[in-house]
Write a structure and sequence with these properties.
611 residues, alpha/beta, 2 domains, six-stranded parallel β-sheet, globular, protease, Pept_S49_SppA
């Protein structure tokens, strides 16, 4: 008895101590957050100089929508002394370059792309269009770089003068799709994959069944990948006015030309016309300073970055009727899916907000998604159909990817715009379940029991009986038929036409237009203008659709919803040579984490999201 009493009070003391430590930690967190917010508060920015270059410094990928700057991330940056600017959105870049074009204070545009990660050709094309728009002012554009990766060079090629460090290089390798395959590993660890699919080319599940690509998947991927690569080459050839084999030489040509410059990659880039001049960092700064002047305080050219410029220059606001804009970026999931995903409930609320807003006369849904949960995609589609019942036009603008579930939610739009390099289609459905009954048996663990029907007991440790597999396959086939039917109805096509474009095929925007899956080739601005035209608006403003957040929601979002941080830390902690492998593994795990459909049915194109 006494031992029981002692155990009770000892346990009570431990609980009270845990509560005390929790309260102390929460108070400490509040103090840290307060300090970080104070230090991160924007100071009054100095006035813009009379003459300066607008510097476009890209860090990370080009985003469709703002990333949340949580206190945790602010604390990390502050404590580590990281002064790298956050990633920018397409809209920020385009707005700044549009304003700067006619701003007499801006004498040049400078591209600093050193920290830009690989982004899709579609996003880079939109940034490139903004750069070309700036160039109509007659002001020069300079690209300054110690080196250029493939994506960085694609943007740098828009510059009037591309400068490269003599110790640097331009790396253009081509495009590829490579995925881990698990079949042999599953066999070794006695894991049983149960795959259900409709669509010969729905290749997402192949790595769980094979150790290599199927010929059907290889054929389909090679087709759309080749189109993207041709688009890359054609644009560089046009912008730089150089032969195509300077971008894509044969291995014999590359070895011969590289040998002619004694293996000097910078000299090779100059000889091939990829860059205009080799210059040291100081020489690069002096080149721009000749145009806009020297800043003795910073020991560089007179410069203003895009965030500072946008805070100083005035946006062109007017009271014209509005076209609403909703951005749906990421994998489509149900419930509280976290950052970089499309939450079906939240997106439905945004669509309802646009439907009920009397100021919004038409809606553009910007989709950048490889798909995800079939159930969640259908909930979003239902919200869009309800919006159409209001009589307001609905237009879809496809970003880098609007495939599978991304196309599911697009199909009913009054008009669909896609970029030539958009990846879309992938009309197919799959289900995937992993069970471990054989692995458990190897460990000496066995599951046994009784149930009242033949459908009780199937699961991770017991496997799937044949009749359950048949039920799941019939459900997947039904969802596929539903997919084909809704595309046929939404696009005014007959089922046979849709079937030819379906079966999991991935299409570029160019091919999708020929197949009737999209209406026009164009970017977001084209879609906004098209929506205004359908609403018969002579002039219009753009109104991003947002929901008001309560103080509680803001606090929870900032303090708790930062789940992507751990993956970033883990990748950054790897040695540089191992980071590509770490990034690939992170992508594979990220794909698996999206399997939240309540019926286990997915409309998802994983390979698409890399482009």
């Amino acid at each position: 008895m006494w031992s029981a009493i002692k155990w009770f009070f000892r346990t009570l003391a431990r609980v009270l101590n845990a509560i005390r430590m929790l309260i102390i930690n929460l108070l400490f967190l509040v103090i840290v957050v307060s300090v970080i917010l104070v230090f991160s508060a924007k100071e009054e920015a100095p006035e813009l100089p009379a003459s300066a270059a607008l510097t476009l410094t890209l860090t990370g990928p080009v985003l469709e929508q703002d990333a949340t700057a949580t206190p945790r991330r602010l604390a990390e940056k502050w404590l580590s002394g990281d002064t790298t600017p956050p990633p920018m959105t397409l809209s920020q870049i385009k707005e700044a370059l549009d304003r700067a074009r006619n701003d007499e204070r801006i004498g040049a545009l400078v591209l600093r792309l050193q920290n830009m990660s690989e982004s899709s050709l579609t996003k880079l094309d939109e940034v490139g269009e903004a750069i070309e728009g700036f160039k109509t002012s007659g002001k020069p554009v300079y690209a300054l770089g110690d080196y250029y990766t493939q994506g960085q060079y694609y943007l740098a090629a828009h510059a009037d003068e591309v400068l490269l460090n003599p110790a640097g290089a331009v790396t253009i390798q081509g495009l590829g799709v490579y995925r881990l395959h698990y079949k042999s590993a599953f066999e070794r660890f006695n894991i049983t994959p149960h795959v259900f699919r409709v669509g010969t080319y729905k290749s997402f599940v192949e790595p769980y069944l094979r150790d290599d690509m199927s010929e059907e998947s290889r054929e389909d991927t090679r087709r759309w990948l080749g189109q993207l690569w041709q688009h890359y080459q054609d644009n560089i050839v046009k912008l730089r006015d150089i032969p195509a084999d300077h971008i894509n030489p044969s291995k014999e040509q590359l070895l011969s030309r590289f040998g002619a410059v004694n293996g000097d990659p910078a000299r090779y880039a100059l000889e091939q016309g990829l860059v205009d001049r080799l210059a040291s960092r100081n020489e690069m700064l002096q080149t721009v300073a000749e145009q806009v002047g020297w800043d003795s305080q910073t020991n560089g050219y007179m410069s203003v970055d895009i965030p500072a410029y946008l805070s100083h220059s005035e946006s062109r606001k007017h009271a014209a009727p509005a076209v609403g804009l909703i951005t749906a970026s990421g994998a489509i999931m149900s419930g509280d899916a976290g950052p970089n995903t499309i939450n079906d409930e939240y997106l439905g609320r945004l669509i309802d907000e646009a439907r009920l807003d009397a100021d919004i006369h038409a809606l553009v849904l910007r989709i950048d998604s490889p798909g995800g949960s079939a159930f969640a995609a259908e909930q979003i589609r239902s919200s869009l159909l309800r919006f159409k019942e209001s009589g307001k036009p609905l237009v879809v603008s496809m970003g880098s990817t609007a495939a599978s579930g991304g196309y599911w939610i697009a199909a009913d739009a009054d008009r669909i715009y896609a970029a030539p390099t958009t990846l879309t289609g992938s009309i197919g459905v799959f289900g995937l379940f992993l069970t471990f009954e054989e692995a458990f048996e190897k460990l000496g663990l066995h599951t046994d029991g009784v149930g009242t029907t033949d459908f009780v007991g199937a699961g991770l440790t017991t496997g799937l009986p044949e009749h359950t597999k048949q039920l799941i396959q019939m459900g997947v086939e039904h969802t596929y038929d539903q997919f084909v039917e809704l595309v046929a109805k939404g696009r005014s096509l007959n089922p046979e036409q849709v079937e030819r474009a379906a079966q999991g095929h991935v299409w570029t925007g160019q091919d999708a237009k020929a197949l009737g899956l999209v209406d026009e080739l164009g970017y977001l601005d084209d879609a906004l203008a098209g929506a205004a035209g359908l609403a018969e608006l002579a002039e219009f403003s753009v109104k991003p659709v947002k929901l008001p957040s309560s103080a509680k929601e803001i606090l929870l979002e900032q303090l708790l919803l930062d789940s992507g941080a751990f993956g970033d830390w883990a990748t950054a902690a790897l040695p540089v040579v191992l980071r590509p492998a770490g990034e690939q593994l992170k992508q594979e795990l990220s794909a698996l984490s999206r399997f939240d459909d309540i019926r286990g049915q997915y409309v998802l194109c994983v390979a698409c999201q890399e482009f």
